[in-house]
Request: fold
Amino acid sequence: MRKLRLGVMISGSGTNLQALINACEKGDYPATIEVVISNRPDAKGLDRARGAGIKAVCVDHKGYEERSQFEDAIHECLSDHKVQLVCLAGFMRLLGSEFVGRWKDRMINIHPSLLPSYKGLHTHARALEDGVKFAGCTIHYVRPEMDNGPIIMQAAIPIAPDETEDSLIAKTLEYEHRMYPAAVRLIAEGKVRVSGNKVAVKEDVALPNAGLINPAP
Ligand code: GAR
Reply:
């Protein structure tokens, strides 16, 4: 089996990266992580990658005067590793339109809200503040506008009456960790088509155990 070559970009803890590492360690998973790039030298995810024997690189944004130079360095690193799909997993720097254009329909992001609601930061606290009954998370193709782009997969997560920001963050991460490997698998298997601002997923069926993840992983 020819595996899809992933580049994972992080800024912090890297629990989503860990979910992808765990998936890739299974022999029948159709993707491999070729390189992990962090813009922060202290990102815990770099240790997770190294611990799993994966090349881990820090491209520190503070080392570049211009954003374009920083992004060129990332692009070069991804290209050197023959990356076919870039997975943003808690990468917290905005990417410029030129970089995003170079990776159009080859770069995905995970965001902790039911997009298009709650783009940006502090998504869980804002959802609780608004009293919405569902929070969620979303995997989408990246477009130049922040937290925007064709949606591949979403989970709707019911908010409990006694929900706190911490409990909602933890609950949301559980869904993120299930969804990210599932979405990458769909892409690797050629089951995801982008057309305009919409995504069609082949064999998109609601499995009985799929809960509120739609389309089902
Ligand atoms: C995740 O909740 C991810 O959805 C979020 O950062 C966290 C990273 O956690 N991403 C964004 O907010 C992007 N706009 P992790 O480092 O443990 O995977």
